[in-house]
Design brief:
By secondary structure, the chain is of the alpha/beta class. The chain is built from twelve helices and twelve strands. It has helices at about 15-25, 30-40, 55-65, 130-135, 145-160, 180-190, 210-220, 235-240, 250-265, 280-290, 315-330, 360-380, and strands at about 70-80, 85-90, 95-105, 110-115, 120, 135-140, 165-170, 200-205, 225-230, 265-275, 295-300, 330-335. It starts with 13 loop residues before the first helix and ends in a 15-residue tail after the last helix. The protein binds S-adenosyl-L-homocysteine and iron/sulfur cluster (SF4).
Length: about 400
């Protein structure tokens, strides 16, 4: 365990829970009662509330496990209440965020409630347009810390008689650099006897950790795989996704293509559109060439404003013309309008508040370095910068 505390009960596998119940001298059906109490409508956060259990078992449960790994949460509303950003404090003081987005029913589609969750506190990959990347790496989340974000949202929804319909791992962190725990979390979310959300309603987004993608391919379909592409040319992708210096874009797309062929599932590609950086006609052509003929879907996402970057979103007509180039190449493309900007809660834009802002000269140097690096990349020069620490080993 990374943290010195009893295990979060929602991260414990059914086998382990059953063995624990047996060790308490209780019959097997008690394990089912515990699981129901943890998972139904987001579940309880206090063992004392599980009235179906004998008092001694409730006490033992409270002693051996934490019923909730989220110690405290603060909710901020945006988009007239359609977006809810939750800032969660964990046992060791780490702050993580999740975002709940409500989409009303429309012709041909039912109402949806999508939760964007974090897999790590901070992120080591360090994409310069991403607020989490700017934070640096805190630590991997435990399985329970991942699923307790979901239970928190499920409880809030249940209070209104609603249920979560989709989960996306697009919050803080790189899920494929915490893959064992992400897989265990997805298993719990998927299990009909636990959270019970179908694999098709779960999406995991990666910045391109090739060994992780290959491991997923060997496991068979687990969820929808999304790949954060951002640029089809290595020189530019080196700057936008520093992991590209370890696993270049052609390798990432080849691994994703193999995944799609092996699992029969479409790959989602995300491209954050940054004005004057990755939105030129050459970029659109390179993207079309890279993905032509693939079972793929491209999401073009206007960049959300993030402090400390010199960049802004591409204008909508530019994004539309890139979409047209991709569609002409036979690639399914949508333009995604991001939610929750005014509360800093756009999915993928999460960075828990921390003490103090970096000093102005450091911000200025960072901006200058990014302008120089992206200009060099646009001339086709590859970055000489080292890989960020902690990734790509
Ligand atoms: N680390 C994973 C998942 C979390 S980021 C990954 O990178 O895929 C989720 C998505 O949000 C990614 O596609 C990421 O590129 C995108 N994103 C990050 N910062 C953004 C910003 N400022 N504007 C728009 N999208 C952003
Ligand atoms: Fe990490 Fe994803 Fe942000 Fe890149 S975009 S820094 S991989 S969270």
């Amino acid at each position: 365990m990374t943290i010195e505390a009893s295990p979060g009960v929602s991260g414990v596998s059914p086998d382990v829970l059953a063995a624990w119940v047996a060790a308490q001298g209780e019959p097997g059906f008690r394990a089912r009662q515990v699981a129901d109490a943890i998972w139904k409508d987001g579940g309880v956060t206090d063992a004392a509330a599980i009235r179906t259990l004998p008092a001694a078992l409730r006490d033992a449960l409270a002693t051996d496990f934490r019923l909730d790994t989220v110690e405290d949460s603060e909710i901020r509303l945006g988009d007239d209440g359609q977006t809810e950003k939750a800032l969660h404090r964990l046992a060791d003081g780490q702050l993580i965020e999740s975002v709940l987005m409500h989409y009303p029913a429309r012709a041909g589609s039912r109402e949806r409630h999508t939760l964007c969750i974090s897999s790590q506190a901070g992120c080591a990959v360090g994409c310069p347009f991403c607020a989490t990347g700017e934070l640096g790496f805190g630590r991997d989340l435990e399985v329970a810390e991942i699923v307790d974000q979901v239970r928190h949202a499920a409880r809030r929804l249940a209070a209104d008689g609603k249920r979560l319909t989709n989960i996306v791992f697009m919050g803080m962190g790189e899920p494929l650099l915490n893959l064992d725990r992400v897989l265990a979390a997805v298993e719990a979310l998927n299990d009909p006897l636990r959270f019970g959300l179908g694999a098709r309603h779960i999406t995991v987004s990666t910045s391109g950790v090739v060994p992780g993608i290959r491991r997923l391919t060997a496991l068979g379909p687990q969820f929808t795989l999304a790949v954060s592409l951002h640029a089809a040319r290595d020189a530019l992708r080196d700057v936008l996704v520093p992991l590209n210096r370890r696993w270049p874009v052609a390798e990432v797309v080849a691994a994703a293509r193999e995944h799609s062929v092996a699992t029969g599932r479409r790959i989602s590609y995300e491209v954050t559109m940054i004005a004057g950086v990755n939105d030129t006609p050459e970029d659109a052509e390179a993207l079309a060439d890279l993905l032509r003929g693939d079972h793929a879907h491209v999401n073009l996402i206007p960049m959300n404003p993030v402090a400390h970057t010199p960049w802004t979103a591409s204008p909508m007509p530019v994004i539309e013309s890139i979409a047209a180039t991709l569609r002409d190449a036979g690639i399914q493309t949508t333009i995604r309008r991001n939610r929750g900007q005014e509360v800093g809660a756009a999915c993928g834009q999460l960075a828990a508040e921390r003490a103090g802002e970096p000093p102005a000269p450091a911000v200025a140097r960072r901006r200058e370095r990014l302008v120089t690096a992206s200009a060099a990349a646009l001339r086709g020069e590859r970055s000489e910068e080292p890989m960020p620490a902690g990734v790509g080993e």
